[in-house]
Amino acid sequence: MIRKFLIAAAFILPSLAAAQTLKMGEINQSEIDLNEVAYEPGAGAVYLVASGESRINNSILETQHFYRIKILSEAGKEHGDVRIRFYAGTGNVENISSVKAQITNYDGGRPLVTKLDKSNFFEVDLGDGVKELRISFPNTQVGSILEYSYKKGDKNIEFLDGWTFQRSVPVLFSKYQITMVPHLEYKTIGQGANFSTKSERTSDYGNYSWTLRDLYALKEEPYMKNYRDYVDRVEFQLSRYQRAATTSGPEWADYLNTWEKLGDEMIEYYSVKGFYRTNPLEREVLSLDLSSGTQKEKAEIAYYYIRDNFVNEGSDWIYTEQTLPQLLKSKKGAPGELILAYMGILKSLGIECSPVLIGSKGYGRSEIVPFPFLSQFDEILLIANLDGQNQFLDLSDPLAPFGYVDLDKHVKGGLLLKKNASSLISIDIKHSSNKLVFSNIKLDKESGELVIDNSIRNSFYEGLAAAHKIEDLEDGNKPLEEFFNENYQAFEIRNVSVENRLQERNMVNISFQSVLKNAAQEEMLVFNPLQISQFSKNPFTQDFRVFPVDFEYAFKETYTANLVIPEGYELDDYPTNESITIPGSAITFLYSTENLGDIFKITAKFEVREPLISPVRYADLKFFMESVATKLATPVILIKAPAAD
User: DSSP letter at 13?
Assistant: First the structure.
């Protein structure tokens, strides 16, 4: 059964290339003539052809790879150095063989073909079982067409890597074909909007193929650091295998566990490591009184003890390198190890809690695949019942207060580990992240300076982001004034003070002054009263969008500025009121002004209600953000009033 997962949406232009040939040297005239990718101008290179053909032979997955690349600009010449990484391990788990390559340059339309030999191929050991085949194409020029092919063998036939259709540069033609053997049955796992809606598919007696055309380059876009979660690709998970043939037909055995069995295996793994234990853990590690208080209060005390007394280092991973006794002795551990130790403390306090395995953002999947295989999970959360309320807990961030979950773990669901009852559950992290900014603006008569007194209250994840930025400045022995320098240009930043109350009230408060010197000497004062917003410049300037826009979490920003009209001045110009949104109201903006006599009040409210916005709504979002940026950057103009007769 082939399951389709619609992960993202993208606008794909019609194919511009003629039918592609998949044999080395068979270059057609349209490929020779191509000097720019029409739908992605400026690309330094383009994959004319990317092809993979897989089959299982003697319990080894063999995949024949073939690529044809054209260099379009000087920047694209870097593709003359090809690197193919593979995992050899200690038992030659993966290997590369049958490498061939050639480069074709053109002199007056005449092809000059150079076939590469062994001196152009290098194998490099990167350590930890990882190796890399490097192909160095000689005399790579603008207009060169590079071709190479190789066979990759993989002894792991339980989970087949399959094929990724997109590359670091545009791809005109990408095809993958696999021949399945009758005695092995696989689940097909597809991902990506193009794969789900635009792939050309064939199925014929165990032979399956998928073709995609005119794909945009893979690269990070503003507000999308986890693009790997939306890449077009196809993979395969072994579901069952034929154990025997009988007179009544083939006898099949399941390879995939149930969620319950998969969960029990992980619980057993953690138990062997010592993280599930019957004797009270807190007596060994805590010098704290946990005999009184609510469950939540006890959980908070234990959380801060682990966070503040253990060094958080190492990769966040579902597997642990240390046993629990080793962790307690070293007082150092990876986030997953700290979470499991924390679980032991809560359990010994009689608090019901369990690990939840998740596939974090950026790990490669935006949705859980509904088949019980473990490789789709990479990190751990803890779910605890505190005073009758379920709460997700995490120890990934050493600055985060109790109850915060790392943003990369804000996913839709995970695998709850419970003995004989593990299952998929939904994850919904509750918070109220916002930024409140108040500015009081006045002209100081004595100094002649325009002084803006600013106060910012950053709540929840806005506060945590501010705390990290402040810590980075302090660790680098840099002045706190650098927190604001990007926004204030001609203004001088003074008297910065920070009050970190994340632990007590989920907020970080910052106050400071921004000062325009010698303002009183000017006949006209032109300045932006709302200088703090990160959206005073539109981050979305590209014409198209390949991946969704991800603001990471829902939040609000509210700006209020009170301008005291200086004696002898009058308002000459200021922004008008405006209220805008995009279809569906996923993101909204309100700007209003009010003249209160000697005080001119400005209020702006920016709210992201749905943090993930699909590419099909990108045009609306781009226009919206341009309108927001224009409004936030529009200055107030004060002029000196004419002298009375």
Answer: P
595-631 tens-digit pLDDT: 998 999 999 999 999 999 999 999 999 999 999 999 9
Neighbours of 388 (CB within 10 A): 6
- Within 10 angstroms of residue 139's Cβ, the number of other Cβ atoms is 10
Q: What is the pTM of this model?
A: 0.88
Q: What is the pLDDT of residue 283?
A: 55
For residue 596, count CB atoms less than 10 angstroms from its CB and return exposed for 0-12, middle for 13-18, buried for 19 or more. exposed
| Mean pLDDT of all residues in 425-429 | 95
Query: Using CA atoms, how far apart are residues 604 and 543, in angstroms rounded to an integer?
Result: 27
What lies within 8 Å, CB to CB, of 102 at 6+ separation is: 24, 25, 113, 114, 115, 116, 146, 147, 148
pLDDT at 19 over 90: no
Distances (CA, A) of 594 to 180, 207, 571, 598, 601: 70, 69, 12, 11, 5
**Which residue intervals of 137-197 are DSSP H helices?**
193-197
Q: What is the pLDDT of residue 550?
A: 96
Cα separation, 277 vs 323, in Å, equals: 12
* Geometric angle at alpha carbon 637, from 635 and 640, rounded to 5°: 160
In this predicted model, what pLDDT tens digit does every residue of 91-149 receive, in sequence order? Answer: 899 999 999 999 999 998 899 999 999 999 999 999 999 999 999 999 999 999 999 99
- The H or E element containing residue 32 is helix 29-33
Cβ-based neighbour number of residue 86 at 10 Å: 18
Is 475:420 a contact under the CB 8 Å cutoff? Answer: no
**What is the C-alpha separation between 31 and 345, in angstroms, rounded?**
64
Q: What does the alpha-carbon distance between residue 55 and residue 544 come to, in Å, rounded to a whole number? A: 37
As a whole number of angstroms, the distance between CA 363 and CA 377 comes to 8
